[in-house]
Amino acid sequence: MRTAIVVTFLAIASSVVSASEPARHTSPYQGEEKRAVKSLADSEVADLLAGRGAGFAKAAELNGVPGPAHLLEMKREIALTAGQEAEIEAVRQRMQAEAVELGRRLVALEAQLDAAFATATATKEALGDLLTAIASVERNLRFAHLAAHLETPAILTPGQILAYNRLRGYAAADPCAAPPPGHDPALWRRHNHCSD
Description:
By secondary structure, the protein is an all-alpha fold. The chain has helices spanning 2-25, 42-50, 58-61, 68-73, 82-118, 124-151, 158-167, 185-191. The N and C termini lie far apart (90 Å).
């Protein structure tokens, strides 16, 4: 009888361990193997092909340097003049054209990388070349988005920059802490009534 109980207990314990094994080894990427381009979510592909920021300009955005697309979305709330709107639209169009082209190239390169592994034709040499090309396109794409952010402060007033950041939900930036690039620091501080 005692042997039967031990055998039953071991059988139950074994089934519990077996049932937990798949969960322990299940990849967080489960389901992504069905993507058209495995390394990119459908939303990432859509963002890249449309020239959207997709987080490439976070360094500027989260440091209080406005992006042209969002500025145009909130033009009424921050009281853009017609002249400001035209200048910002020109910045956005230049950035958009470059970002769309680079986004297409990046999606195509990621698809090549995917295909190389899917067809078992990847070699170390080809892989190195492909990753270098991907890194170059990603660098240029990030540059296009960040460079557009660099152009906007000169078009805006300090109050509009503060309003932008407030509307975007960021902590209020102190205009006295860091004059925007291209502005004379002393003149900037005097204009914004900064104390010495």
